[in-house]
Amino acid sequence: MAEILHRIGVQAPPEAVYDALTTVDGLAGWWTEDTDGDAGVGGVVRFRFLPGGFDMKVLDARPGEAVLWEVVDGPEEWLGTRVEFTLKQEDGFTIVLFRHEGWREPVEFMYHCSTKWASYLLSLKKLLETGAGDPSPRDLQISNWH
Amino acid sequence: MAEILHRIGVQAPPEAVYDALTTVDGLAGWWTEDTDGDAGVGGVVRFRFLPGGFDMKVLDARPGEAVLWEVVDGPEEWLGTRVEFTLKQEDGFTIVLFRHEGWREPVEFMYHCSTKWASYLLSLKKLLETGAGDPSPRDLQISNWH
Question: Does the predicted model carry a pTM greater than 0.95?
């Protein structure tokens, strides 16, 4: 199994980072404006982008600590994979350890998603530090695959 | 073994991308201004950042196609790992498939390096598309680890 890993530090309290990961408004502020659904544990959140999207079941959410999603609808390569955000405090930053695990093969789409995840996590950081992120469809285009 | 994967598309010819990966001036334009050494096959390129740096032996370089480095000096987690850039053309973009492989464990430093690599590859894209990248020490700070 292959996995995508990232680490960012956000100059905001863990509660604010947690809110941006566990509310529809928060998620719409950094990942994609076209977000709806139920972001509570057991709920499913629907994220849509220009070419398609993902439905995430919220498997776990521990305030200020961790959020765990399972992909229940979306591209075949994503189905059944899990996305985990682990939070901790360090040097005045809330550190976000990001892990998207369960990829069956390191296909080219995984290379793309890794770079896009980095870009969206920097959007999360920007949202919390400046009040405005760069969610889809205003996200940074990184290639012909958007 | 764990690996970091990324994919960007650069609106520039493959020769220009290749030059940015195989000349000291090119590398200094997107990764770190403090770059010197011999960027030809068999040479060693020395990259330095505020907290330290990496020496890369150039194992292979095929114009417009691929560049392969081995880390011969640097942090313990990087020693012996390999960094590979594979180029191809698609939809008017030069696609860069990036792979940093041979990590023994997915340690927290690997999470950090994955996000930093994404940021530097976007700097490479910016260098080639606008004439100016964001190399160290002018690179984007992503956390308390810089």
Answer: no
